[in-house]
């Protein structure tokens, strides 16, 4: 057990830190609208470490003008805290914030085994609870099992390109040549630097990313899943970063890295649960086909270059595709839609993304950097037209680094959209 005086000291320091917060200085996040503020359900924000989960919660709580207690469990002095310590934590919260506080914000709680029992008890006492976590395990097991129907899940990613522009005060509205050039320059920076909020004002970006990757591997995976072969985990993480937007071939991965097929699958899933990567499955009406040949995407483009022994290529097309997929995940969360890729058979042309409402295809999206040559234009549009017939969907979008326009092919309209226009929409 951790002594009460230590917990009280830690919480007092955390309280003093948040007293100086000014949410008007922070970048507005789209996910703010997803909070069900007056709901009796726990508000649960999950996402990759350092994506801004804590800031998001503080922002909505402060802007709503409510009194709340704050506990950040990602503190080395609270390492090893157990469920039996949480009542002492609550006592310290009451001592610091008063016994009548209506809201309690529990930051990075997933490593406390049995935390759900504590949260359930607080919910039953009518306290409003905000929770953050950096591991999908927080949702997939404890939440789904023990807080069934009593939580509102909000997934947060690092800055979108629009939020990146807001942070850096890039003019996204003007049509002048200067503003257009500024947006293009910002876009090229974004697909290399990425959108982690703290990274934006740090000069040594490589050290920050290496430290962040280390924290994810050590705290969110090694400690959580009690693994021993961290070197194998790091190799798999680097392999997936270097092969973003590609199908995962566990046999090849095993042969290249000298790691068993079973370990490759297990550690890849751990990386998914820590939001290090995002998985995209194939569109199919057969369940067995949907789980085959998944593709992996990294949660932020900043992981590709800002790390030791990085050999990531300069393929802007893949970088753009990765950014578009993460943006689709943000947007589809609002309408409870799903995203897949489509490939009718191994030798067929592939469509990068199919946005679906249950079993109905709503939009087919192809992503490429350039379509300036007849060969590249025909390759991308042919894939869309073939899939349109198979999936009975005529809402066809081609995102490229090109001016926005519509084209008519075989009586179908393809909306060619500038990547920058689409990301800022």
Account of the 3D structure:
This protein has 425 residues and is an alpha/beta fold. It has 16 helices and 14 strands. The protein has helices at 4-18, 53-63, 86-97, 115-124, 137-146, 161-167, 177-193, 205-225, 230-242, 250-257, 261-273, 287-290, 302-305, 316-335, 374-391, 419-424, and strands at 42-47, 68-72, 103-107, 128-133, 151-156, 246-247, 277-280, 295-298, 338-342, 351-357, 360-367, 396-400, 405-409, 412-418. The strands form 3 sheets. The protein has a 6-stranded mixed beta sheet with strand order 9-10-11-12-14-13. A 5-stranded parallel beta sheet has the order 2-3-4-1-5, with helices on both faces. The longest helix is centred in the middle third of the chain and has 21 residues, at 205-225. The radius of gyration is 23 Å and the shape is globular. The termini are far apart.
Tags for this model:
alpha/beta, 6-stranded mixed β-sheet, 18% strand
Strand content: 15-25%
Number of strands: 14
Spatially, the strands of the biggest sheet line up as: 9-10-11-12-14-13
- Topology pattern, helix = H, strand = E: HEHEHEHEHEHHHHEHHEHEHHEEEHEEEH
**What average pLDDT do the residues reach?**
92
| Helix and strand composition category | alpha/beta
- Helical residues, percent: 40-55%
Distance between the termini: 51 Å
Q: Name the poorly predicted regions.
A: none
**Main sheet summary:** 6 strands, mixed
The best one-word shape is globular
Helical segment tally? 16
Question: From the alpha-carbon coordinates, what is the Rg to the nearest angstrom?
Answer: 23 Å
